[in-house]
Amino acid sequence: MELEEWLAVYQAVSLTAASKERVYWGVGGACLIANTILLALAAYVSRATWLEDWRYLTTALAVIGVGVGAYWLAIQHRLGREAAHWQGLLRQLEGEFAGAEFHRSALRLLKGQPVRTPTTTVHFDEWYPEVARLGWFARAAARLMVPLVPTLFLIAWILLGLIPWLAG
């Protein structure tokens, strides 16, 4: 392949990977906002004991919340796999170019391996490479938070749907 063809392929794969990543985080943000709004509404309804049939309203909101939480878990898994696939293609393409380390360095940083990042020094504003490393706690927290947040919302919705009927 010619260099221009390689660059066109790289640009197309890069745009696709970026859009997959944007959709992944956009759906996650939308589900988080939907859960938060529903949770605020359910908290108001559960405290409004003067409302007639407040238990049914709380349970209905909890069922909607369970649906949003289950959707969040399912779509997060599928979109995460798609984004990982396209990022893997980008890393493979970068292996064809000498010195291209954009996505491979990001993968190494997330795995906790040392990578070189450009930093400025105080002396004459020159660029010197410095080794940066993401610690084990940051890696573990990032890996745990992505599936843990929707799971906790799902558990909270189930409990919120059951508590009005068990409490009295």
Q: How would you sum up this structure, described in words?
A:
The chain is mostly helical. 76% of the residues lie in helices and 7% in strands. The protein contains four helices and two strands. The chain has helices at 3-47, 54-94, 102-111, 136-167; strands spanning 115-120, 127-132. It has a two-stranded antiparallel ribbon. A hairpin with a 6-residue loop joins strand 1 and strand 2. Helix 1 packs antiparallel against helix 2, helix 1 runs parallel beside helix 4 (136-167) and helix 2 (54-94) packs antiparallel against helix 4 (136-167).
The helix content, as a percent range, equals: over 70%
SSE succession: HHHEEH
Task: Indicate the proportion of strand residues.
Answer: 5-15%
Mean of all residue-level pLDDT scores: 81
Distance between the termini: 72 Å
Please give the number of β-strands: 2
- What oligomerization state is this entry in? single chain
Write the layout of secondary structure elements.
Blueprint: H1 3-47, H2 54-94, H3 102-111, E1 115-120, E2 127-132, H4 136-167
Antiparallel strand pairs: 1-2
Helix pairs in contact: 1-2, 1-4, 2-4
Structural key phrases:
168 residues, mainly alpha, two-stranded antiparallel sheet, 4 helices, 7% strand, elongated
